[in-house]
Structure formats: structure tokens, C-alpha cells
């Protein structure tokens, strides 16, 4: 989005020239050439000495613009050599270069002071009895050089501002496209997944009340299925709310339609809960036990503060491992071991062989339909951790993760 006014070839030439002039060697060369020209023009009299005082600052005007322009101005106004006539052409060229380069760095007040001195010199010369064409020419040259430096500075500021605006516009467009994609994903997830999860909840509740002679245990299991489906639906809606509106919620007029179930009056949409972590591990384990899976949790080591992203990854690894155990090894016991080290959080989730006949699922617990352990590995890699998993000879399955706690992971 950032377009330069100059053609590409001129733009490249300008960049190369800028880089070259940023080094001291071109300025030393220019100062040497001007000194030779001044010597050839004026010999070694006071005019040459004045030219030397004006031309030498050319060598360091880029590094020290204010001292350079101060020396050149004082010399040009005749304060170093009061009896010398006006500077020769080589000295005037050096004064032009010094004022132009320094004008890029000087403030507006400093430029006005320098211009005022040369204006006074044009009206009542410091080094001559009467004003003349030479003093007015000197004033014109200095004002033109300072103005050129100031215009060059303004042009650079405009180009930098345009480039910044272009970068900001590109970033805004990218964020807008990302938001559009996230909204489309959220819409598809809601239309597809929410539809089927809602059907699961409805069918589970319907089966409880329409199946004659249903055993009490079966009714309890169907109720748990319905509750799990409703919990999954609520959590998915909270996640989709964040995806559709990544910024903080804003106060606004209430939306049309009834409020979400369970939402307090005046609240827009579903309530956003804190993202899960190991602090919710007891609730996760309790829900798994209610589904009929025996879970044992062992915590060792000295508990240390856990970064928020690592805390979330640890929770998701345990959650996915429990889900895989219920799916691929129904009836098997699950052992969860957490070890808090000074630099690592180690997780080990092991389930035994299936205790009852398992449903038809892939023979490998890596979920060959694709995303269970793959998403787990991506989460662990995102925080710089390592993940190992595999089936054991006794038919069980183990997931082991090491998550670094260092800030510089």
C-alpha cells in the first residue's frame, strides 16, 4: 500500500546515495577537493584561511551538524579574520553544503537565528563598511541552503508517515480478513456441530422418558449423556463467541430475541468463563468418574507458578487423554501423575487395557481419523514442550508430556 512518488530506478539510486553519504569518506573527499580549489583560487592569503575555516566543517557536518554550522557561519561572517574580504567561490560552496546538511537536523528556531545573522550582515556587513551585492548574495545562498535542508527533512517525514499509514492499512486489512475467516468458521461450527450435539441431548432425554422398563442405571447414564451434550454445547458456544468477537465485550443495546438460557438479565450472549487450567482438574476428573471411569491423580514436587499458556496446555492434554481412554479403553482405570519441577511440569496419563468390549474404533489409540493427539502435540509444541505417547505391551496406553516453565522457553 506504500507507494513512492519517484520511479523505482530513481528510488534505488536515492537509497544507494543515502547509504553512501552516511559514511564519513565522501564528506572528507568533498572537503579535500574544496580546499584544493580554494588554494588554487585565492593562494595562501586570508581568503584561503577563511575558506579553510568554512570548508573543514564539511568533513564532520553529518556527525556534528551544530558545531559544523557554527564554525562555518562565524568564519563566513568574518569573525575569524576581520580584515579578509568576502569568501571565494570554493568557500561559498562549502558554506552552501554545510548549511544544507545542517538544515536537515536543526530546529526552526536555530534556522531563524542563522538566517537573522546573515540578514543583518546583508544590511550592515560585519566585515565591510557598506552593504553590497556580495553580502546579499551570501544571505540568499545561506537561506536557500537552510530551506533546502528543511524541505528535505519534511519530505522524509512525509514519506515515513505514508509508509507507516500503508503498513497500518495493510495490517488492518489482514485483521479484517482474519476476522471474516474466523466468523465463517464459527458459523459453520455452530451450524454443523451444535446441530448434532443438540440432537444427542434431545435423544438422550427422549430415551429416558419414552423407553418403558428402562433400568435405573440406564436412565442415569442417559441423563449423564444429555448433561455432557449440553455442557459441550455451552462450552462450544462460549468458544465461538470469542472467535466471532475477539475484542473485549462492549456495552450496547440489547439484541433482539430472548436471552441465552442461564444468562442473567441484561447480559449480552453467553457468559465468558475463565479459560480452563489445572485449577479445574478436580472438576474434570469428577466428571470422568461420573461416566464410570476410575481415575487416580498423583501430584508430586513443589508447586510453582505456572504460566497461563502452559496451564491451559496441561489441562487440554489431560482432558484429551481422558477422552481417548473412555473412547478406546472403556472400563480401564486411568492414572494421572503430575510432577512440579523447578523448570518443567511433567504429565503422565496412563490407562490400562479395555475392561469391557470396546466399540469399533481404530486399533491404535492415536485416533487415525486424525485430530486427537495431533492437536495435543501442536499445543505442546506451541509452548516449547515435548510429547511422547504409545501403546504398551499390556494393552494400555501412555501419554507423557514435559512442559517448560521458563519465561524464555
Automatic annotation (TrEMBL):
<dbReference type="Pfam" id="PF07730">
    <property type="entry name" value="HisKA_3"/>
</dbReference>
<feature type="region of interest" description="Disordered">
    <location>
        <begin position="245"/>
        <end position="277"/>
    </location>
</feature>
<dbReference type="InterPro" id="IPR050482">
    <property type="entry name" value="Sensor_HK_TwoCompSys"/>
</dbReference>
<keyword id="KW-0812">Transmembrane</keyword>
<feature type="transmembrane region" description="Helical">
    <location>
        <begin position="134"/>
        <end position="152"/>
    </location>
</feature>
<keyword id="KW-0902">Two-component regulatory system</keyword>
<dbReference type="GO" id="GO:0000155">
    <property type="term" value="F:phosphorelay sensor kinase activity"/>
</dbReference>
<feature type="compositionally biased region" description="Pro residues">
    <location>
        <begin position="246"/>
        <end position="257"/>
    </location>
</feature>
<dbReference type="InterPro" id="IPR005467">
    <property type="entry name" value="His_kinase_dom"/>
</dbReference>
<keyword id="KW-0472">Membrane</keyword>
<dbReference type="GO" id="GO:0016020">
    <property type="term" value="C:membrane"/>
</dbReference>
<dbReference type="Pfam" id="PF02518">
    <property type="entry name" value="HATPase_c"/>
</dbReference>
<dbReference type="InterPro" id="IPR003594">
    <property type="entry name" value="HATPase_dom"/>
</dbReference>
<feature type="domain" description="Histidine kinase">
    <location>
        <begin position="316"/>
        <end position="407"/>
    </location>
</feature>
<dbReference type="GO" id="GO:0046983">
    <property type="term" value="F:protein dimerization activity"/>
</dbReference>
<feature type="transmembrane region" description="Helical">
    <location>
        <begin position="51"/>
        <end position="80"/>
    </location>
</feature>
<keyword id="KW-0418">Kinase</keyword>
<keyword id="KW-0067">ATP-binding</keyword>
<dbReference type="InterPro" id="IPR036890">
    <property type="entry name" value="HATPase_C_sf"/>
</dbReference>
<dbReference type="GO" id="GO:0005524">
    <property type="term" value="F:ATP binding"/>
</dbReference>
<keyword id="KW-0547">Nucleotide-binding</keyword>
<feature type="transmembrane region" description="Helical">
    <location>
        <begin position="111"/>
        <end position="128"/>
    </location>
</feature>
<feature type="transmembrane region" description="Helical">
    <location>
        <begin position="25"/>
        <end position="44"/>
    </location>
</feature>
<protein>
    <recommendedName>
        <fullName>histidine kinase</fullName>
        <ecNumber>2.7.13.3</ecNumber>
    </recommendedName>
</protein>
<keyword id="KW-1133">Transmembrane helix</keyword>
<keyword id="KW-0808">Transferase</keyword>
<keyword id="KW-0597">Phosphoprotein</keyword>
<dbReference type="InterPro" id="IPR011712">
    <property type="entry name" value="Sig_transdc_His_kin_sub3_dim/P"/>
</dbReference>
Amino acid at each position: 500500500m506504500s507507494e513512492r512518488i519517484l520511479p523505482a530506478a530513481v528510488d534505488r539510486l536515492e537509497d544507494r546515495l543515502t547509504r553512501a553519504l552516511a559514511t564519513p569518506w565522501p564528506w572528507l573527499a568533498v572537503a579535500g577537493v574544496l580546499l584544493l580549489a580554494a588554494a588554487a583560487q585565492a593562494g595562501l592569503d586570508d581568503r584561503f584561511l577563511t575558506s579553510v575555516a568554512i570548508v573543514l566543517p564539511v568533513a564532520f557536518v553529518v556527525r556534528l551538524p551544530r558545531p559544523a554550522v557554527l564554525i562555518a557561519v562565524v568564519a563566513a561572517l568574518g569573525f575569524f579574520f576581520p580584515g579578509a574580504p568576502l569568501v571565494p567561490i570554493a568557500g561559498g560552496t562549502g558554506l552552501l553544503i554545510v548549511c544544507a546538511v545542517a538544515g536537515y537536523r536543526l530546529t526552526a528556531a536555530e534556522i531563524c537565528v542563522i538566517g537573522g545573522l546573515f540578514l543583518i550582515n546583508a544590511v550592515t556587513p560585519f566585515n565591510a563598511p557598506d552593504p553590497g551585492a556580495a553580502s546579499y548574495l551570501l544571505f540568499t545562498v545561506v537561506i536557500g541552503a537552510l530551506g533546502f535542508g528543511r524541505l528535505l527533512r519534511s519530505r522524509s517525514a512525509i514519506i515515513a508517515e505514508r509508509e507507516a499509514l500503508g503498513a497500518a492499512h495493510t495490517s488492518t486489512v489482514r485483521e479484517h480478513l482474519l476476522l471474516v475467516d474466523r466468523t465463517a468458521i464459527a458459523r459453520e461450527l455452530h451450524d454443523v456441530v451444535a446441530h448434532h450435539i443438540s440432537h444427542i441431548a434431545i435423544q438422550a432425554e427422549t430415551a429416558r422418558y419414552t423407553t418403558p422398563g428402562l433400568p435405573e442405571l440406564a436412565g442415569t447414564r442417559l441423563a449423564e449423556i444429555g448433561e455432557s451434550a449440553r455442557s459441550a454445547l455451552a462450552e462450544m458456544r462460549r468458544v465461538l463467541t470469542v472467535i466471532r468477537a475477539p475484542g473485549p465485550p462492549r456495552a450496547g443495546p440489547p439484541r433482539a430475541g430472548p436471552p441465552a438460557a442461564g444468562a442473567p438479565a441484561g447480559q449480552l450472549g453467553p457468559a465468558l468463563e475463565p479459560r480452563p487450567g489445572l485449577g479445574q482438574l478436580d472438576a474434570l476428573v469428577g466428571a470422568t468418574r461420573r461416566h464410570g471411569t476410575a481415575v487416580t491423580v498423583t501430584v508430586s514436587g513443589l508447586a510453582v507458578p505456572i504460566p497461563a499458556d502452559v496451564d491451559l496446555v496441561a489441562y487440554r492434554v489431560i482432558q484429551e487423554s481422558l477422552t481417548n481412554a473412555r473412547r478406546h479403553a472403556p472400563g480401564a482405570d486411568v492414572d494421572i501423575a503430575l510432577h512440579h519441577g523447578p523448570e518443567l511440569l511433567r504429565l503422565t496419563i496412563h490407562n490400562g487395557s479395555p475392561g469391557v468390549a470396546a466399540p469399533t474404533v481404530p486399533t491404535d489409540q492415536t485416533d487415525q481419523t486424525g485430530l486427537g493427539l495431533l492437536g495435543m502435540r501442536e499445543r505442546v509444541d506451541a509452548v516449547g514442550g515435548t510429547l511422547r505417547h504409545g501403546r504398551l505391551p499390556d494393552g494400555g496406553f501412555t501419554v507423557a508430556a514435559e512442559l517448560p516453565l521458563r519465561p524464555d522457553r
